[in-house]
Write a structure and sequence with these properties.
The complex is a heterodimer of chains A (292) and B (350).
Chain A lengths: L2 E7 L4 H11 L10 E5 L16 H14 L4 E6 L10 H4 L2 H7 L3 E4 L5 E5 L7 E5 H5 L2 E4 L2 E5 L3 E3 L1 H4 L16 H12 L4 E12 L8 E11 L2 H12 L7 H8 L7 E5 L3 H4 L7 H11 L3
Parallel strand pairs in A: 1-12, 2-3, 2-7, 3-4, 7-10, 8-10
Antiparallel strand pairs in A: 1-11, 5-6, 8-9, 10-11
Helix pairs in contact in A: 1-2, 2-4, 7-9
Chain B lengths: L1 E6 L3 H13 L3 E7 L3 H10 L4 E3 L2 H6 L5 E4 L6 H10 L3 E5 L6 H13 L4 E4 L6 H11 L6 E9 L13 H4 L1 H6 L1 H11 L2 E12 L4 E11 L4 E7 L6 E8 L3 E5 L4 E5 L5 H20 L3 H21 L8 H23 L10
Parallel strand pairs in B: 1-2, 1-4, 2-3, 4-5, 5-6, 7-10
Antiparallel strand pairs in B: 7-11, 8-9, 9-10, 11-12, 12-13
Helix pairs in contact in B: 1-11, 4-5, 5-12, 9-12
The chains are: A alpha/beta (292), B alpha/beta (350).
Chain lengths: 292, 350
């Protein structure tokens, strides 16, 4: 059994591309959710053109489409504090709040909201705190950027939720990064999940996920199975998904399937273009950190 | 075949323009002109150009010319440009086109009236790293520019032609030495809004402004720092652009473009320099260094030639250099003020 993953290209207006994807694709979406949470990718104080953070020009049509499709739903953009990020100000700094205001979408720093405890059979954790709003929402949309990452090779849907670890200094979790990513995804397990990956301006090179080089792929990827979405994204970036620790471990924990069915009208040459990644530095760093 | 009339047979014409013309199959230097008879004969002999004139009007009266290339000293460019336009010939002129924006506007208006093309040889805009950087910016791979620094440090100018020594005539440090650095900064940052602060040093013994440091605010909200110094301990030209995505460093002679993101450890610094050295060594070993150093001029002339053939605007038209001219003018006006305030210092350096 394979999970469906949809890929389309940004042609002309991003609004048309996104609404076409959300309406025509056979995505599993709730009919009338009261609460929709959207998790952008705001990992650092880097503007969208760097390819490191959510592009307001893509988020805008996404929110427009959602507010058209679900006029009665409450839309909330959620982000958490991170080692070098305060979610109190990053929405404003990166121009995300301007877009949110346009569509009456709330912005929320979950670090200041309520958290609940979730017991899990994780790889490392047996219990994790998760934001209450994620547990409550009927539709959770993870909206990551497709990026290379010096620690995990790629950063995409699964890693986007790493932000929901309660502690601010998440860098301390880097020594068990793959396990921490899988465990938080196990703990979150919202009622309905959708991944919409912005692979328009991506990030390549060993400097990712914050300081890589921008690379334009012009793609939009979506699917309900975030493991399958990440597996496809890994392929697009030029990696075998099986050799990406957190994707393999997530599949083993039955968060989703590595095998996907690619649903697209685009030729493969336009999709699988690859992102540069200095593997020798990656392995050198791993060796230096004693993580083999 | 396009035929060129070359005015001025000095260093720039001999070492840069003429070797470039020799590389083209469809361009020929048909006539040359120089006020210095000896230099004119020598130049004519070296490049086998029969039509030699001592007076510009004689060269301009020579009918078999498609465009005129002006390689005279900078302070003469305005006068020579106007003369060539008067005779209805297209013009390619070395930098600076003039010593004020008023003069530049005058050339622009006159050339428009008689439908003459005027191209400026801003050869630094045609260096490999500058072309590459501009391309990356236009492709959106380099974000919005937040600030820039340009530093040009040079040695003594007393090995240069004597007209350069007098800054009242030549325009000195601004129009001759630092012109390219200033033009590059304006090329990337756009027109300036104001000069926030400026410090200059005038040496009364040399009768020269020897150093200018300026902090500039640009119309697009970005800022720039400029440092132009003569008689400095080390000589180099470098341009740094700090953007929202990638920081870029351009070094010249040998040219290199380094793009930086995140922390910049010594190993990457070393790799960058090794790349630069490798490129330089490869060019030297292949005996290509001299030809490579001609490339910016070659590209500038080639682009102008194409604009004439295709009847398109010149690659660097007068309008493109007017922001640089306006900036230079403002710096110049501030220099005058700082000169008046100058007080000699008799303090021993030790």
């Amino acid at each position: 059994m394979k999970s469906e993953v949809y890929v389309t290209k940004f042609n002309g207006s991003p609004k048309n591309t996104i609404s076409e994807l959300l309406i025509t694709a056979n995505l599993n979406l709730p009919t009338n959710p009261k609460l929709i949470c959207i998790k952008p990718n705001l990992c650092d104080y880097r503007f969208w053109e760097s390819g490191a953070t959510t592009d307001p020009n893509i988020l805008d049509p996404l929110l427009a489409t959602l507010s058209e499709k679900y006029p009665d739903s409450r839309l909330v953009l959620v982000e958490n504090d991170a080692t070098a990020v305060s979610a109190d100000n990053i929405f404003h700094y990166l121009g995300i709040s301007l877009v949110a205001d346009k569509y009456d979408c709330e912005i929320l720093n979950v670090a200041r909201d309520e958290w609940i405890s979730r017991p899990i059979k994780g790889i490392y954790f047996q219990n994790l705190l998760i934001p209450k709003i994620i547990a409550k929402c009927e539709l959770f949309i993870t909206h990551p950027k497709l990026k290379t990452c010096s620690a995990t090779k790629i950063s995409c849907s699964l890693k986007n939720q790493f932000a929901f670890h309660r502690r601010k200094r998440k860098i301390s979790l880097h020594r068990i990064l793959d396990a921490a990513i899988v465990d938080i995804n196990l703990a979150l397990q919202p009622k309905s999940i959708l991944s919409i990956v912005d692979a328009n301006i991506c990030h390549e090179g060993i400097g990712g996920p914050s300081f890589g080089f921008p690379k334009k792929l012009g793609l939009l990827i979506a699917g309900n199975d975030i493991v399958a979405v990440d597996a496809l994204c890994a392929k697009i970036a030029g990696f075998n998904p099986f050799f990406i620790g957190h994707i393999r471990k997530a599949a083993r924990k039955k968060l989703g399937r590595i095998k996907y069915h690619l649903n697209t009208k685009l030729p493969k040459s336009e999709i699988f273009r690859g992102l540069k990644f200095e593997r020798w530095i990656y392995f050198g760093l791993k060796l230096a950190r004693g993580r083999f | 075949m396009l035929k060129v009339g070359l005015i001025g047979c000095g260093f720039v014409a001999e070492k840069y323009h003429m070797p470039c013309y020799l590389m083209f199959d469809d361009v020929k230097v048909a006539a040359v002109c120089d006020i210095n008879k000896g230099r004119l004969r020598k130049f004519g002999q070296k490049f086998a150009i029969k039509n030699q004139f001592e007076r510009i009007t004689d060269l301009l009266s020579y009918k078999d010319i498609d465009f005129v290339d002006i390689c005279t000293p900078g302070f003469l460019h305005f006068r020579h440009c106007m003369k060539v336009i008067q005779y209805g010939k297209n013009v390619l002129v070395e930098k600076p086109i003039a010593l004020s924006s008023k003069q530049a506007h005058e050339i622009l208006n006159r050339s428009r009236k008689v439908d003459i093309k005027v191209g400026v040889v801003q050869n630094y805009r045609f260096h490999d790293p500058i072309i590459e950087l501009k391309k990356k910016i236009s492709e959106g791979l380099i974000g919005r520019i937040i600030s820039s620094t340009v530093i040009q440090h040079g040695g003594s100018i007393f090995d240069q032609p004597f007209w350069l020594w007098n800054e009242n005539v030549s325009g000195g440090i601004l129009y001759e030495f630092g012109f390219h650095a200033i033009d590059l900064q304006t090329y990337f940052m756009g027109p300036h809004k104001r000069i926030v602060g400026l410090i200059s040093k005038y040496n009364p013994h040399l009768q020269l402004t020897t150093s200018i440091q300026a902090l500039v605010e640009y119309q697009n909200g970005s800022s720039g720092f400029l440092d132009i110094t003569y008689f400095s301990s080390s000589q180099f030209l470098s341009l740094n652009l700090y953007t929202t995505t990638i920081d870029a460093t351009v070094k010249f002679f040998p040219d290199s473009l380094t793009l930086k993101i995140g922390e910049w450890p010594p190993l990457q610094e070393l790799l960058g320099d090794l790349k630069r050295f490798y490129k330089f060594a490869k060019a030297v070993l292949r005996n290509r260094y001299k030809i490579n150093s001609l490339m910016p001029h070659y590209r500038a002339i080639k682009a102008f030639k194409s604009s004439l053939i295709k009847d398109e605007p010149p690659p660097v038209a007068i309008e493109d250099v007017i922001p640089t001219m306006k900036f230079l003018e403002e710096v110049k006006s501030k220099l005058r003020r700082s000169k008046l305030n100058w007080q000699p210092s008799h303090r021993s350096p030790r």
